[in-house]
Amino acid sequence: MKIALLNLESFVSTRGIKFLIENLHDDLALICLSKRFGGKYGSFLKQALKNYKRAGLRFVMYQSFNLVYFKPLAYVSYFINRFLRRSAPITPIRLLAKQNNIHIIRTYEPNDPIFVNYLKSQNIDLVITFYFDHILRKPLISSVNVGAINAHTAKLPMCKGAFPVFCSYLHNIEPTVTIHLIADETLDTGNILVQESYSLNYEIGLLNTEQELMYRAAKLMVKVINNIKSGSIESKQQLNEGFYMPFPNKNDIGEIVRRKQSLIGISKYVRAFYAAPNHI
Known about the structure:
By secondary structure, this protein is an alpha/beta fold. The chain is built from 10 helices and 7 strands.
C-alpha cells in the first residue's frame, strides 16, 4: 500500500509522526507538510497579532510553543540525544524522512491541481491527515485508490474543529482519540473507524495533553491501516451531528485561566525533547 501522510509540523504531532514513520516506512511514499506562515496566511507576526486580538497573549504563546519554538529545540535536542547515545523522543520530520528515504513536499494548498495530479501520478492508495490544517476537497479525495482517513483528538461527533483538546477540556469531555474516514468536504463528519478514551490528566498542560493524545492517535492509526490492508476494517456512522468549536476566543481562554488550568506545562514541554513521557 502506498500512503501519503499530510501534516502541519508541530510540537504536538512530531512524536506521533516519528511513530508512524517507524512503523509504516515501507508504505509511506510521501509526506506533505503544510506551510503555515507566509503566502495567503500572512507572516508569523501578522498571524500572532490576529491571534492576540482574538484570544489574547496566552493563546499566542500556546501557538508559538506548538508551531515555532519547538523547531530549533527539536534539532538541538536531537543532536544532544545523539551525542549522549540516547533515543530522541522528538526528531525533526525532515531528518526522519531522509533517514527513511521518504519524499517530502511543502505546500500552502494541498488541494491545488498540481499537488492533486502529483498524487495521481504516484498511484497513492491512502491519504492520512495527522494534525493537518486543511479541509481536503473532492478532487484530492478521489485522486487516491482507497480513500482518506484522519486522526482527531476528541470524542466525535462532539468537538469537531481545529482545537479538539481545548473543546474537550472546556466541555468536561474525557480525553479521546478518534480515527475516521474523510468521505467529503465536511469537517470531522466521516464514519468512525476506531475511538478510544483515556484517563489522562489535563494538569500537565493542554499542549502536552494534546501531544500525548496525538502519540496515541499514531498507535491507533497503525492498527487501522493494518486492518485496512487485511480487509478486516469496519466503520460506524457518527450517531448525531454533535457540535463544532471554532478557534478559541478570549472568553474561552479566560475560562481556562479561571479554572487554574495551564495551557503549557513548561517543564513537561522541555522534558518531552529528552525523555519520553510516562504513559498513563
